[in-house]
Specification:
Number of domains of chain B: 1
Largest sheet of chain B: 2 strands, antiparallel
Shape of chain A: elongated
Radius of gyration of chain A: 23 Å
Largest interface: A-B, 63 and 49 residues
Structural class of chain A: alpha/beta
CATH architecture of the largest domain in chain A: 3-Layer(aba) Sandwich
Strand content of chain A: 5-15%
Helix content of chain B: 55-70%
Number of strands of chain A: 5
Strand order of the largest sheet of chain B: 1-2
CATH topology of the largest domain in chain A: Rossmann fold
CATH superfamily of the largest domain in chain A: 5'-nuclease
Oligomer: heterodimer
CATH class of the largest domain in chain A: Alpha Beta
């Protein structure tokens, strides 16, 4: 039996766009892109999503910069002062212990408010693994060189993600096209009522508003299991809006 | 013309590598000439024709160019009362001229270009020289940005834009290389000097808009960097060697944002412009999934914005 032709369109969430830029969820996204191309399904990115992507990238870059320049640098310098070791001396495992102290303090400060994965843990793994590898190789490095190396890695990454970002968003040379949507405020309110917070409520409302106006099905595609997909049944019941993982998106457009 | 710069320094540092002017000097402001000589060998007279290039501008105009450019830049940014515009123009220009004078490598490349025979492919050789030089210093430029970040309280995203600019500048050079290689090859196979000249003129016409575009982008980057630098320097001496610390509190944030947005817009415009020449520039194979920094970034960027704060 031949499958029917999918009709409608996709609205992509920030998690999908950022995953594509940063090469996360590769298998799922490759299938999704293949479906989009094969069936020629329009795939949109709204202004609110673009804005959220920009903010998230910028905030993450700045968070990493600040933690390196302020917390890591300060902890290392303070520890050297306390141990009376010259600041220019090569780094040793004692410096890693100083960072252990720093991260343990930061953990304590954030534990009360944060979810399972703390950003501090993520940065900690990255910084300590990097320093550990340097020390294991027997390479001599002082604190200021270490900090420069960390920042260089961040800057290089921030520079290199600009190409996939531009390809996807700025110049629309990939599978998504920008779309301007006038959002129906009552839909945003309904979504808020379901416990969907901003800006997710606006993102989903764009898909719903478009669906109502065009008379076509608009599927909201996301990897956000925590805030959106966990409530997908409530959203469907209240607004007839489908939200799903990209892996299944095409099947929601097939009658 | 405002973007004519041989000495726009990346990363508030020193370099003559953003060579909008060097490229203009070497590739656009040149005219092919044919030298006809009569030589005698084994008692027989031969006519020997060789093709080379002559400059359309006097070489001393570099000083005028940088002065003109610095005047343009400083007219775009407000200055603190402690500094006189004229004196700043003089300091910035002298420092660029000094760097140019000391840059024997670049001068040698320009001279070689003038003295080489067309058969040797001097234009491509010169373009490759600029590319190799930039390639060899790319990591150093990132390092300068990193060091500058660590001696400032500006956000890291401010510095990352200059890394994007470096990458864009590299893409520009690679596109230029493609055009020069193609044009010079066709010029060399031309049957006569007239056709040869026509090919070179066609090349100049096609690379001029590229150099103009990159120059405009360099200009906006320079306005932003000089604005931050001037407002963080207390003395002329600090202007010369660069301020010790860049404090965001020393600048007018609205003005800074305007200059940042101008630079950002020009950067996007330039990247879009380059795309018309070669769509592959944004389709590089990035293997971010195997890179620990990218993996870490990927995890962080997906977290709720409220969790990315150190103030609790």
């Amino acid at each position: 039996m031949q499958a029917s032709t999918p009709t409608g369109c996709f609205f992509t969430d920030t998690t999908v766009i950022l995953s594509e830029i940063l090469r996360e969820h590769i298998a799922r996204l490759e299938k999704f892109k293949k479906d989009v191309n094969f069936h020629n399904v329009p795939c949109f990115i709204t202004d609110s999503i673009k804005q959220e992507c920009d903010t998230k990238i910028e905030n993450t870059v700045n968070f990493l910069g600040n933690i390196t320049r302020e917390s890591i640098a300060m902890a290392l310098e303070d520890s050297r002062k306390n141990r009376r070791v010259p600041i220019e001396s090569p780094m040793t495992s004692e410096d890693i212990i100083a960072l252990e102290e720093l991260f343990s303090l930061l953990h304590k400060a954030t534990r009360a408010t944060l979810q399972l994965t703390s950003p501090i843990q993520i940065v900690e793994e990255w910084a300590i693994t990097f320093l550990g590898e340097i020390l294991e190789r027997g390479t001599e490095i002082n604190i200021s060189q270490f900090l420069v190396e960390l920042v260089k890695k961040l800057l290089s990454l921030a520079g290199s993600i600009q190409d996939p970002y531009d390809e996807l968003i700025t110049f629309e040379r990939s599978f998504v096209k920008k779309i301007n949507i006038v959002v129906d405020a009552s839909i945003v309110d309904s979504l808020r009522g379901l416990g969907i917070h901003e800006p997710d409520a606006t993102h989903i409302a764009c898909a719903t508003s478009h669906s109502i106006r065009s008379g076509q099905r608009s599927v909201f595609v996301t990897f956000d299991y925590g805030s959106i997909l966990s409530k997908k049944n409530d959203i469907k019941n209240a607004l007839n809006q489908i939200c799903c993982d990209p892996l299944y998106a095409i099947y929601h457009l097939t009658p | 013309m405002v973007g004519e710069s041989l000495a726009i320094s990346p990363s508030f540092g020193v370099a003559t590598d953003y060579s909008g002017s060097a490229l203009r000097f070497g590739l656009v402001d040149v005219k092919p000439i044919e030298v006809v000589e009569t030589i005698k060998r084994f008692g027989i007279k031969f006519i020997r024709k060789s093709r080379t290039f002559e400059s359309l501008r006097p070489s001393q105009s570099f000083a005028d160019l940088v002065t003109f450019e610095n005047e343009a830049i400083l007219s775009m940014i407000p200055l603190p009362d402690r500094f006189e515009a004229e004196k700043l123009v003089k300091i910035f220009s002298q420092s660029s001229i000094k760097r140019y004078d000391e840059d024997t490598e670049l001068q040698k490349a320009i001279n070689e270009l003038r003295s080489s025979k067309a058969i040797e492919g001097p234009l491509l050789k010169f373009t490759r020289f600029i590319i190799n030089r930039f390639e060899s210093k790319r990591e150093h430029y990132v390092e300068i940005e990193a060091e500058r970040f660590l001696t400032s309280n500006f956000p890291l995203s401010f510095y990352s834009r200059f890394v994007v600019f470096d990458n864009t500048y590299y893409d520009f050079l690679k596109i230029l290389e493609q055009i020069v290689r193609f044009s010079e090859f066709h010029a060399r196979t031309a049957r006569n000097f007239k056709m040869y000249s026509r090919q070179i003129e066609a090349m100049k016409r096609s690379i001029s808009p590229l150099i103009d575009q990159i120059d405009i982008c360099i200009f906006t980057a320079s306005c932003l960097k000089k604005y931050v630098s001037v407002w963080n320097a207390k003395t002329y001496e600090q202007i010369e060697r660069g301020p010790d610390f860049l404090d965001i509190k020393n600048i007018d944030y609205q003005r800074f944002e305007k200059l940042s947005n101008d630079f950002k817009a020009r950067l996007v415009e330039t990247r879009e412009f380059l795309l018309k020449y070669d769509p592959r520039i944004i389709q590089k194979e990035l293997h971010l999934e195997n890179e620990p920094t990218a993996r870490m970034f990927g995890k962080l960027v997906m977290l709720p914005p409220s969790s990315l704060s150190l103030e609790r």
